[in-house]
Amino acid sequence: MVDTTDTDAQIETIIADRLRVDPDSFDDSTAFEGETLNVESLDIVEVAEAIEAELGVHIPDEDLADLERVGDLKEYVRERI
């Protein structure tokens, strides 16, 4: 069984690194396309590629488009680990 706390922390680190934001500036309710993260399509693809490389979870583009918030992404990954 994978520790969800560790998985969530890894996802938060990936988001912070790829989007060049402070990890304390967002939480599960933060929208990717909102003021805080202001994610462009290439940015979210980089996040997805890093998740696949580090956690082994592939996120198809059609699924990626449906993940609107940080918490949605965490839940998606946790369900597939």
Automatic annotation (TrEMBL):
Signal peptide: none annotated. InterPro entries: ACP, ACP-like_sf, PP-bd_ACP, Ppantetheine_attach_site. Gene3D superfamilies: ACP-like. The keyword Nuclease does not apply. Residues 5-81 form the Carrier domain. Keywords: Fatty acid biosynthesis, Fatty acid metabolism, Lipid biosynthesis, Lipid metabolism, Phosphopantetheine, Phosphoprotein. Pfam families: PP-binding. PROSITE patterns: CARRIER, PHOSPHOPANTETHEINE. GO terms for biological process: fatty acid biosynthetic process. This is Acyl carrier protein.
